[in-house]
Amino acid sequence: QTHQVAYKSSVAHQPQTSERDEYNVSKTLVGASACAEAGIDKLGITGPTTIYKNLTYQELFEHEVANNEGWVASAEYGDTFAIDTGKFTGRSPKDKWLVLNKGSDSAEHVDWNNINQATTPEVFKELYDKAVAHFNTKEKCYVFDCFVGASPKSQRKIR
Predict the structure, then answer these.
(1) What is the pLDDT of residues 72-90, one digit of tens each?
(2) Model pTM score
(3) Which of 100, 122, 120, 103 is CA-nearest to residue 111?
(4) pLDDT per residue over 39-53, tens digit each?
């Protein structure tokens, strides 16, 4: 009978997983607890019973096709998904509003101008409540957790 001996140098290296690796895992959450499992109940969103969380590009593509949200277009490097936005074809820089919290760091450090326009906490709350009410009428929704910023020292989580 032969015995194998594992020496320290031959032990398979198990790379440590970072928070970033754990953060981007595709899941479909179904049932009454889906919002709680996704963590969106903390935002007031409790209506949807199916949540597609952190879908891959391929999964999103398949959902777009299945939901008839546009059409598949052949491109040089493979199929892509296209939509018709009508007259709304681009980003509108003058539709950017930031909450001005007087006395805060952001109040002092944001370049307030005709692009970085100020709004009040009350207007934000009204819009937030309207968005939450809309989500709560939906049976299904999509949640995507990601990081912004290339540097791990300064990157931030967003949802």
Answers:
(1) 999 898 888 898 888 877 7
(2) 0.74
(3) 100
(4) 999 999 999 999 999
Residues 6+ apart with CB under 8 A from 144: 53, 54, 55, 159
Burial track 55-79 (b if 16+ CB lie within 10 A, e otherwise): beeeeeeeebeeeeeeeeeeeeeee
Residue bearing tokens 């681009």: 90
Lookup result for tokens 């919290």: 101
CA separation for the pair 155, 157 (Å, rounded) = 7
Task: Give the span between the Cα atoms of 145 and 20, in whole angstroms.
Answer: 10
Residues 56, 59, 62: CA angle, nearest 5 degrees: 150
Strands 78-82 and 71-75: antiparallel
Q: Which residue, 17, 20, 51, is CA-closest to 33?
A: 51
